[in-house]
Structure formats: C-alpha cells, structure tokens
Design goal:
heterodimer, A: mainly alpha, 2 domains, two-stranded antiparallel ribbon, 20 helices, about 0% strand, globular, B: mainly alpha, Four Helix Bundle (Hemerythrin (Met), subunit A), 6 helices, about 75% helix
Chain lengths: ~475, ~160
C-alpha cells in the first residue's frame, strides 16, 4: 500500500470537497467565483504533476496496490489532459452560472469529482478497479446532465443517459464476471498471462465482448451511440463539453489499457473488430450529422464520427497509432472546448441552438464567430489547425498498416464533414442576422476563447513537442 | 441435496424476476423483487458466502425495497396502462435479445470452473480482510462514488431556492 502513488487524485478529490464545503461560507452572489478557485486549484495540481518529486517518486516506477494501479507516462499524459480539460470547463461554467439553478458550488464540485474519477481511469490495471473508477465518472455525469431539471430537455437527457448508462454498466459488470469466472483473476496482467497460456474459451470471449460494449458506450461509438444526440442537446452546455472531451478520453484510456494490456494475445481478432466499429462510426456520425440544424446536436453526431477517427488510430495497433490517438484527444479537447464556449456564451442571448440563430453572428460578435470558425475548421481537419495534424497522424498510422479500406472510409468521412461544418460557418458570415444587437461577452469567457483558439492554432503549428510526448507515452504502453 | 437446492433457488429466483417485469401493479412488482432477492440470498448461502447472504437480505430485501414501497405508495401510482409497442422496434429488440440469449446459453453450456480461482471463504472476517488488503483501493474509491451519489440526491431533489 503506497498511497503516495495517488497524490494527484487525492489532491483533486480534496479540492472538490473543499469547494463543496466553502459553498456554505460564501455569499450566494459570490458563489460562482468558487469555479475560479477550483480551476486555479486544478492548474496548481497540473503544475505539481511536473514537479520531479511526483514524476520520480512513483510515476515511472510502475504498478502498486497488488497490480491494480499503474503509473506510467501514459497515465500521466491522460491525468494532465483531464486536469486541463476540467479547469477550462470550470471557467466555462462560471460564465454559464446564471443559467444554472440553485447550487453552483455542487456543480463545480461534481465536475471535479468526475475529474477525480477520470484520473483514476488513467491508471487502471484491473477490471474491478476499472468498474469502480468508471462508475465514479458516470455517476457524476448522471447528475450533471440532469442539472437543469426544470427544463424538459435536460431532464429527458438525464433520464436517457441514466437508463442507457446503467444498461452499459450492467453489460460491463456481467462481462467482468465471465472474465473472472474463466481466468480466476481480475488483473489485466493475469488475464494476459491466462490468454498466453490457454486458448480463449467461448465464455471468456463473450465476457471480453461485453466489457468492450460497456466501454463503447462511454466513447460513443456505433452501435452504442443512440444516447449521444439527445444527451448532447439537452445537457447544460459546459456538461456537454465535458462529456465530449472528458468522458470520451476516459473511455479511450480504458480501451487502450484493456486492449494492449489484457488482450494483447488476442490482437489479430480485436484489430478487425475495432476496425469495423471505427469505419461504421465514421460513416454513421458524418452522414447523420448532415441534415442536423441544431448546433449542439450536430456536435453530438460529430463526436460519434470523431470516436470513429480515434478508433482508426487504435485499429492501427502500433505505438504510432496509439500516439496519434493521444495527440488527437488533446487537439480535440481544445477544439471542442472552444466550440462549446461559443455556444455557452450565446446561451443567454439566443432562443436556442438552432443554426438559423447563428445567422450573421459575425456582425453581432466578430470574436465569437471567429472562435467558432477556428473550432469548426479544426474539427473538419483544415490546416493549420490542431485537428488537421491529429487527422494527419491517424491517417499516417493506418496507411502505415496498409489498411486501405479504412483509409478510404476515413477520407469519405473527412470530405462529408466539411459540408456540415462549413454550413455553420456560412450561416455565421454570409447570412443576414435577424437581430443586429451586439452580443456581450464577459472578459473571463473572452480569455477562455483566446486561450482555446490559440491552443488550437498553436498545437497545429508547433505540433512537435506534444507529438513527442504522445509517442513516449504510447511506447510505454506497447513494449 | 446441494444440487437440488441450487436448482430450486435459481428457478424460483428467475421466475420471480420475470414476474417483476410482467406485473402491472407496481406494488406486486416490488414484492416479487423481494422474493427474487431472497432466493438470491439462498444461492449465496449455498456458495458459503454467508456475509453476502445476510447483507443481501438486510440491505436489499429490507431497506431498499421498503424505500421502494414507500415511494410507490407516496406517489400513488395507478396500474400501468397497456403499453403500445412499435412493431419495428419490438422486432428489432426480439432479434437482438434472441441472439444474445442464444449465444449466452451456448456459452453457459461450455463453462468450466475457474482455472486459478482460490477457494473463497465467505465469512465476515475473510471478507473484511480482503476488503482492507487486496481490494483496498477500489473499496476506498467507492467512498468517493457514494459521496457523489449523495450530493446528487440532495441537489436533484431539493426545492427551488431563490
């Protein structure tokens, strides 16, 4: 038992509890500033994670807690991703606080509890731990999605997410019982050793399939994508952003760990399965996004297609492919947060998120229109944005594996996606606005927009450092 | 004797489980759920997991179901209307459920006892030892999970404050 391995998680969880308690002592009108306390705290933890005492005192050492816990570079990479993402979402929530009813302090605390759960998922090396960590994330999201419970849409989203999420958890835990029943262990290393020594029996295979189905729900891949559009549309905008960047990344780190740690001996089988899911997700997400008129819903379908692109990288199944996935997730984080910050700035002004309301946005607020354009261009993969280089790495990885069928499907997806992303850009710049009143943007939101925009362009132009880190992390996963 | 009891408990458990879903009256459904949980506790006893069996009855059959009944009675639910099925949806559900059931039964037939599973002692003492040694980390993380759930219940159920 070495609890110092859990420093970062314990600090994050402690920060969440601190904010929860501080709420009692803070005046009601000042409570939304607790979001800044949380964001500053998370950034401090992020800075701490670069401190040599953390990195040397346990991070590269390996596993603890009877092999349930692994601290490697990939875990660290994802923990930093979650910390950055949650801090930015917290700032976004402060700007959104007027739309949130009641206790904003609990809202911030739950975001940070979800972040704790995500950081736990980054280090998971055991199926039991996987279940507990994932449930911590999902449970927080059940509450966050249904937060605007006076609005029918949010409530509907909450109920849908709860029911489908519970079903996915049931699949997951049922699968784990099959795995434990046949191998007698829940550890990834133990399962891998069993698979090396024995052929995979039918019960074990069905157990693993059920686990993958549970994870597929989290990353929103076809055929487990049914919840995405409604939940993305109905949830409060910062929560939608967090679902898109945080929950998806948590699902992917678990998928990578399960596939490359526990299921490495079955690699030839799962490469086909993941490849098929990737192709279906890219096609479904992009084609279904085309007729969408609601911008949040459109980003929901786009998130399905991006899950597909990320799975393409997993299907490449080498360290280069995995590093592309890691890079993609970071690029996707800033891009999505940029887009959702714009949507959340507009939430107080526009009636809803229909595309017609975005008409002529450039005349009403040039900054918002520019930020949305940068984000959509990055999502579509237009150079020099971060999304372009991320897609470039993914394609390079699958071309390197000579999976031409997937390359063609991916290319079709990219071309189709240009149509619907640029549709929004066209509405913002080349259509006449219904109203001409300027849209006010508060300075923290302006700062957030600039930070995410610069990050999107910056990662796209200076991709070397991040790509290098992603590759180092990926090489540690694939020995 | 052991085998007969196993079959008795499992069949009775599954039957009452089906009745939970088929019942039109929520109170009847909840009572069948109690029954189903009791039989499951019987299965735990057969597996010599006495602690789990007791917890199953105390917590689930006792506390949780009583809570269910309270809520059902407070809400004063009427007998549910007969549901309208969409033909296409029902057919799709049947196909998927059928395929899953077919696969699972074929798998269950081929199941073998765990290769390296240790003999489990289900007493309170053994359970406690496991929780605080091998499974300490998930056990501690569960406390965060429960805190989140608690905050959520308070937030989602409180009255509007202005």
């Amino acid at each position: 038992m070495n609890f110092s391995l859990l420093k970062l998680e314990m600090a994050t969880c402690g920060l969440a509890m601190l904010v929860l308690m501080l709420e009692v002592f803070v005046q009601r009108r000042d409570r939304r500033f607790l979001g800044y306390v949380g964001a500053a705290g998370l950034l401090a933890i992020l800075a701490w994670s670069y401190c040599p005492s953390v990195t040397a005192g346990g991070f590269t050492v390996g596993s603890g807690f009877g092999g349930m816990w692994v601290n490697d570079l990939m875990a660290l990479y994802f923990k930093r991703l979650f910390l950055v993402g949650t801090a930015l979402v917290l700032v976004m929530s402060v700007g959104f606080a007027r739309q949130l009813e009641g206790g904003v302090g609990e809202f911030f605390a739950l975001l940070m509890f979800a972040c704790t759960g995500m950081m736990l998922t980054a280090s998971v090396n055991d199926f039991l731990m996987l279940f507990v960590a994932l449930e911590t994330v999902t449970m927080s999201f059940y509450i966050l999605v249904a937060w605007l419970r006076r609005q029918q849409q949010s409530l509907e989203a909450g109920v849908k997410y709860l029911i489908l999420g519970a079903l996915a958890s049931a699949f997951l835990v049922y699968g784990i019982t099959f795995i434990y029943g046949t191998t007698g262990t829940t550890g990834f290393a133990g399962v891998a050793a069993f698979l090396k020594a024995n052929a995979a029996s039918a019960p074990l295979k069905i157990g693993l399939l059920l686990v993958l189905a549970g994870l597929g729900f989290k990353i929103a891949t076809v055929p487990f994508q049914a919840w995405v559009p409604d939940v993305y549309q109905g949830a409060p905008t910062p929560v939608t952003a967090f679902l898109a960047v945080g929950s998806k990344a948590a699902g992917f780190v678990l998928l990578l760990r399960v596939l490359f740690d526990a299921l490495l001996p079955l690699k030839p089988t799962w490469v086909l399965l993941i490849g098929a899911l990737a192709g279906l997700s890219v096609l479904y997400g992009n084609l279904a996004a085309m007729p969408q008129r609601n911008v949040k819903r459109l980003l929901g379908y786009s998130s399905i297609s991006h899950a597909g692109f990320l799975l393409l990288g997993v299907a490449a199944a080498d360290s280069f492919g995995v590093s592309a996935v890691l890079f993609y997730l970071f690029a996707y984080l800033f891009t999505n947060l940029c887009a959702f910050t714009v949507i959340s700035c507009l939430a107080g002004t526009l009636a809803d998120d229909e595309r017609e309301n975005y008409a002529g946005l450039a005349q009403r607020s040039p900054l918002l229109a520019a930020a949305m354009t940068v984000a959509l261009a990055s999502l579509a993969g237009v150079p020099p944005m971060a999304g372009f280089f991320a897609k470039f790495l993914i394609f390079a990885a699958i071309i390197g594996q000579a999976k031409w069928c997937l390359v063609i499907i991916g290319a079709i997806g990219v071309v189709v996606s240009l149509y619907y992303y640029l549709g929004v850009v066209k509405a913002m710049y080349w259509q006449e606005p219904r109203e001409t009143a300027a849209i006010p943007v508060s300075w923290p939101m302006k700062a957030l927009l600039w930070v995410t925009m610069l990050a999107v362009v910056g990662i796209g132009v200076f991709q070397g450092a991040l790509a290098q880190r992603a590759l180092e992390a990926a090489k540690e996963l694939i020995k | 004797m052991h085998d007969q009891l196993f079959w008795f408990f499992s069949i009775a458990m599954l039957l009452s489980g089906v009745l939970v879903v088929l019942g039109r009256n929520p109170v009847t459904s909840a009572m069948f759920l109690v029954l189903s949980l009791f039989f499951m506790a019987g299965l735990f006893v057969l597996l010599e997991a006495y602690f789990l069996a007791i917890i199953q009855i105390l917590v689930y059959a006792g506390a949780v179901i009583v809570l269910f009944l309270f809520v059902i009675m407070l809400l004063d639910l009427k007998t549910e209307n007969v549901r309208q099925f969409k033909r296409f949806g029902a057919a799709g559900a049947l196909v998927v459920a059928g395929a899953l059931a077919w696969k699972l039964t074929s798998v269950a037939a081929s199941i073998l006892p765990a290769a390296g599973a240790k003999p489990v002692v289900g007493t309170t003492e053994a359970m406690g030892k496991l929780l605080f040694t091998q499974y300490l980390l998930p056990f501690e993380v569960t406390s965060v999970l429960l805190l989140v759930a608690m905050v959520g219940v308070v937030v989602l159920s409180r009255k509007e404050t202005k």
